């Protein structure tokens, strides 16, 4: 089938919706007029499309600036990678190596409904260890994995994912203000890694990095957690460096896997 023939079957509004989403990817948000120009779609059509996508969670709109951003539902769908690109299988060897290197529990998580969901865990062999279960969820703002994921998003998207109702204080160290979290996001972006030091659970320290897709969107986070008595600042810095190296290799493998999946679909 030629390109001209295939275009006969295009659904106009669907094509425009895809153009709107593609115009937003990689931006820090666009206003209605900017989005219409970037997508090559009329302002009226963009308004109707964006309102529909916002209602389904595929886009979000900042209440003050009125800019549109990629929404939580779209990010969640991106994190549920094609089954032929199995992130758990890709991450398992690295997670085992990290557990053996540092002796602490290694976690793989993803964005899920305004929380971080544990996808896979390689537990420490210590009797005293920090561990959760696959499928369990924790808040984004109080966990290292959650903060690593949030730091790869725009500040306005972070604000949309951190409404007052979700600002639970898990411990006395938990960040519960938007300004506090945004300042923490800046620190995480500069450092390249996130941590929570007894912010989610007393006696626990966790270091995490984000794993991103080919477009820079966070698809998962990798972390190491253990008792504060065993993870001092020097060890935390070593853990962060090893996590960053492992995440970079996983991103390469993930990109190659997605290319193979796309090629197989042709």
Beta-strand fraction estimate: 15-25%
The radius of gyration computed from the alpha-carbon positions, rounded to a whole number of angstroms, is: 20 Å
Mean pLDDT over the full residue set: 84
Element string (H = helix, E = strand) = HHHHEEHHEEEHHHEEEH
Explain what the structure shows.
The chain is an alpha+beta fold and 266 residues long. It has two domains: 68 residues, Orthogonal Bundle (Arc Repressor Mutant, subunit A); 188 residues, 2-Layer Sandwich (Beta-Lactamase), CATH 3.30.450.40. It has a six-stranded antiparallel β-sheet, sandwiched between helices. Strands 1-2 form a two-stranded antiparallel sheet. Strand 1 and strand 2 form a beta hairpin. 39% of the residues are buried. This is IclR family transcriptional regulator. Keywords: DNA-binding, Transcription, Transcription regulation.
Keywords:
disordered N terminus, single chain, alpha+beta, 266 residues, elongated, 2 domains, six-stranded antiparallel β-sheet, two-stranded antiparallel sheet, disordered C terminus
Task: Describe how the helices and strands are arranged.
Layout: H1 3-7, H2 12-24, H3 32-39, H4 43-55, E1 59-61, E2 68-70, H5 72-79, H6 87-102, E3 105-112, E4 115-122, E5 137-139, H7 144-150, H8 155-160, H9 178-191, E6 194-197, E7 204-212, E8 218-227, H10 233-265
Antiparallel strand pairs: 1-2, 3-4, 3-8, 4-5, 6-7, 7-8
Helix pairs in contact: 2-3, 2-4, 3-4, 6-10
């Amino acid at each position: 089938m030629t390109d001209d023939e295939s275009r006969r079957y295009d659904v106009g509004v669907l094509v425009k919706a895809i153009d709107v989403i593609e115009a937003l990817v990689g931006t820090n948000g666009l206003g209605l007029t900017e989005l219409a120009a970037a997508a090559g779609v009329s302002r009226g059509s963009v308004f109707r499309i964006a309102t529909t996508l916002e209602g389904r969670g595929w886009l979000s709109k900042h209440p003050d600036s009125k800019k549109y951003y990629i929404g939580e539902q779209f990010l969640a769908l991106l994190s549920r990678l094609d089954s032929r690109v199995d992130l758990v299988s890709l991450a398992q060897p690295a997670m085992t190596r990290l557990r053996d290197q540092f002796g602490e529990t290694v976690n793989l998580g993803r964005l899920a409904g305004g929380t971080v969901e544990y996808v896979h865990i390689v537990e420490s062999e210590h009797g005293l260890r920090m561990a959760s279960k696959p499928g369990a969820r924790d808040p984004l703002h109080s966990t290292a994995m959650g903060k690593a994921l949030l730091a790869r998003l725009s500040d306005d998207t972070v604000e949309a994912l951190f409404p007052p109702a979700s600002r639970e204080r898990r411990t006395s160290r938990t960040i519960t203000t938007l300004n506090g979290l945004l300042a923490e996001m800046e620190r995480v972006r500069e450092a390249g890694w996130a941590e929570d030091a007894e912010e989610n659970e007393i006696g626990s320290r966790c270091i995490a990095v984000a794993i991103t897709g080919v477009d820079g969107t966070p698809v998962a986070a990798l972390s190491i957690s253990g008792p504060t008595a065993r993870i001092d600042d020097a060890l935390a810095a070593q853990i962060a460096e090893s996590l960053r190296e492992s995440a970079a290799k996983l991103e390469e493998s993930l990109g190659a896997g997605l290319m193979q999946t796309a090629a197989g679909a042709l």
